[in-house]
């Protein structure tokens, strides 16, 4: 069924500021740019955009302000912009920004809005993209703000889950890894929690648990959830889950954690192919469960021997970043309505 | 109705009446919790030349003991009223605020905690934009629960409990 969401936002800052209908809209527009999707599965009113994809953002400039390191997000935003005919200018951490001279985000935004049609920013400072969206009339995309939000990652996570299961509803989810500092977990939990999940499992080292405000949110919404601090629970939860979302320990944010505990956290979640070997799957069927997702980059929380199992979806998930970010650029700039 | 206040002070067997003169125009913050008036004075940024009367530890029929502040020709901004509401909520003793015109109280000002609090509370997250760039970004919090107080930063979305709250 083609659902017809509507988009009514200038910016893309936080999942909490985007309605369910707008998320549906992102999915529908992303399909236009997804080469896996045949024409007949695209909303007919959007089909025209597939034909003129390479010129949709002709003459438009993107300011790419990356105050923190990024590979996938930055490159997929750049690639999305270029493939739509637009141009990219900006900086990534340590290369040519005036932040080192003490320039405020306020001043940087005031400068780039002169030439930029859209601003994509990643910062260590939390709430920076939201503040930027108040400063400028140009569309602002939050490409990650500290431990807070990473909404474009959530949009592509959601798109990947929907591509697999056709829905986000009534599924069992397991989140494993650094649940305290991993912003992708928080953003995805915001999205899942409004899509009627069947059950949520949260597995982490006790030093990096999901924050209390999110646990309260799940309680308030009467969502069945279980919090585990034992690494052995991972194998148990994998068997019953539809989606297993693993994330990297955010080592760069471990300021006051002692080295011994840091080591424990780094080796707490390690998924290997042997943990998946007894999970039944139908070789003929396209649908497999659970699917293993990871926002990448990974360290050692998913062994490379998982890559060739039928459950791994993290590289496909990363590839979905380009059609989803193309959709986000077109929608926020008002090119697709 | 006069805006003059009287307090009877007992000293040994003697009783003494202290009169706190009324205002022509200005604001009275009355029924402040005992000894808390200085907390309010700190946030009011009284300028040189602004006449202000402060009464502390005065007997009160309703409160037992109270403080009072009277400010001549000085009116409170919405931001200052919000600050007072936060201090009052944290202390658990809500004062009354009256606006005085021509010697008469013309308006009672509500000091219940607003749903959104602007430019009053410091965000406890040092990585929040309002902590890192305070000159360009005013703090803004949403009240999630009032008892005990739980607030959420509009920018970084972190929640803060009552014991974590500090004023700007």
Describe the protein's topology:
The complex is a heterodimer of chains A (337) and B (168).
Chain A (H helix, E strand, L loop, with lengths): L19 H13 L14 H5 L9 E6 L5 H12 L3 E6 L12 H8 L5 E6 L4 H8 L4 E6 L5 H15 L6 E6 L5 H11 L5 E5 L8 H9 L4 E4 L4 H8 L2 E5 L11 H8 L24 E3 L20 H6 L1 H12 L5
Helix pairs in contact in A: 1-12, 3-12, 4-5, 6-7, 6-12
Chain B lengths: L4 E7 L2 E7 L5 E7 L4 H8 L7 E9 L3 E9 L5 H14 L4 E6 L2 E6 L6 E3 L2 E2 L6 H4 L7 E7 L2 E5 L5 E3 L4 E2 L1
Antiparallel strand pairs in B: 1-2, 3-5, 3-6, 4-5, 6-7, 8-10, 9-13, 10-11, 11-12
Walkthrough of the structure:
The complex is a heterodimer of chains A (337) and B (168). Chain A has twelve helices and nine strands. By secondary structure, chain A is α/β, with parallel strands linked by helices. Chain A folds into two domains: 15-150 and 320-332, Rossmann fold; 152-319, 3-Layer(aba) Sandwich (Rossmann fold). A five-stranded parallel sheet of chain A has the order 7-6-5-8-9, sandwiched between helices. Chain A has a four-stranded parallel sheet with strand order 2-1-3-4, sandwiched between helices. In chain A, helix 8 (212-220) links the parallel strand 6 and strand 7. In chain A, helix 1 crosses helix 12 and helix 6 packs across helix 7 (183-193). The longest helix of chain A is centred in the middle third of the chain and has 15 residues, at 151-165. Chain A is globular, with a radius of gyration of 20 Å. Chain B is α+β, with helices and mostly antiparallel strands. Chain B has two domains: 17-109, 2-Layer Sandwich (Alpha-Beta Plaits), CATH 3.30.70.140; 116-167, SH3 type barrels, CATH 2.30.30.20. Helix content of chain B is 15%, strand content 43%. Chain B has three helices and 13 strands. In chain B, the strands form four sheets. In chain B, strands 4-5-3-6-7 form a five-stranded antiparallel sheet, with no helix packed on it. Chain B has a four-stranded antiparallel sheet with strand order 8-10-11-12, with helices on one face. A two-stranded antiparallel sheet of chain B has the order 1-2. In chain B, a hairpin with a 2-residue loop joins strand 1 and strand 2 (14-20). In chain B, helix 1 packs antiparallel against helix 2. The longest helix of chain B has 14 residues, at 78-91. Chain B is elongated. Chain B starts with a strand and ends with a strand. Chain A binds chain B through residues 14, 16, 104-106, 124-128, 130-131, 145-149, 212-213, and chain B through 125, 127-130, 132-133, 135-137, 152-159.
């Amino acid at each position: 069924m083609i659902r017809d969401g509507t988009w009514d936002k200038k910016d893309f800052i936080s999942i909490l500021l985007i309605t369910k209908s707008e998320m549906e809209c992102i999915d529908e527009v992303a399909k236009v740019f997804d080469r896996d999707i045949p024409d007949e599965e695209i909303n007919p009113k959007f089909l025209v955009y597939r034909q003129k994809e390479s010129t949709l953002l002709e003459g438009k400039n993107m300011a790419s302000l990356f105050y923190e390191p990024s590979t996938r997000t930055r490159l997929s935003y750049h690639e999305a912009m270029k493939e739509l005919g637009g141009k990219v200018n900006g900086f990534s951490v340590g290369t040519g920004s005036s932040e080192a001279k003490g320039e405020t985000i306020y001043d940087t935004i005031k400068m780039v809005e002169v030439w930029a049609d859209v601003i994509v920013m990643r910062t260590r400072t939390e709430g920076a993209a939201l503040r930027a969206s108040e400063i400028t009339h140009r569309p602002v995309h939050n490409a990650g703000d500290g431990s807070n939000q990473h909404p474009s990652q959530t949009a592509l996570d959601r798109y990947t889950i929907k591509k697999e299961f056709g829905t986000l509803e009534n599924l069992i989810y397991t989140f494993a890894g650094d649940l305290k500092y991993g912003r992708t977990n928080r953003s995805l939990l915001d999205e899942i929690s409004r899509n009627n999940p069947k059950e949520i499992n949260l597995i982490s080292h006790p030093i990096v648990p999901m924050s209390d405000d999110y646990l309260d949110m799940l309680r308030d919404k009467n969502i069945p959830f279980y919090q585990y601090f034992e690494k052995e629970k991972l194998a148990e939860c994998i068997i019953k889950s539809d989606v297993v979302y693993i994330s990297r320990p955010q080592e760069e944010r471990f300021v006051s954690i002692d080295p011994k505990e840091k080591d424990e956290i780094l080796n707490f979640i390690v998924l290997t192919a042997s943990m998946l070997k007894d999970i039944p799957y139908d070789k003929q069927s396209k649908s497999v469960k659970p699917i293993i997702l990871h926002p990448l980059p990974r360290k050692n929380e998913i062994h490379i021997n998982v890559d060739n199992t039928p459950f791994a979806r993290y590289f496909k998930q990363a590839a979905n970043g380009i059609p989803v970010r193309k959709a986000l650029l077109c929608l926020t700039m008002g090119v697709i309505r | 109705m006069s805006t003059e206040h009287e307090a009877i002070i007992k000293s040994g067997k003697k009783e003494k009446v202290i009169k706190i003169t009324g205002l022509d125009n200005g604001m009275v913050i009355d029924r402040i919790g005992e000894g808390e008036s200085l907390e309010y004075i700190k946030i009011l940024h009284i300028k040189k030349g602004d006449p202000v009367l402060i009464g502390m530890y005065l007997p009160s029929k309703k409160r037992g003991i109270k403080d009072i502040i009277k400010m001549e020709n000085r009116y409170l901004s919405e931001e200052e009223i919000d600050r007072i509401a936060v201090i009052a909520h944290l202390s658990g003793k809500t004062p009354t605020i009256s606006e005085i015109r021509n010697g008469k109280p013309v308006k009672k000002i509500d000091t219940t905690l607003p749903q959104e609090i602007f430019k009053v509370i410091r965000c406890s997250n040092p990585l929040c934009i309002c902590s890192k760039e305070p000159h360009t970004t005013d703090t803004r919090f949403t009240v999630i629960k009032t008892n005990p107080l739980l607030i959420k930063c509009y920018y970084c979305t972190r929640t803060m409990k009552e014991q974590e709250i500090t004023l700007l």
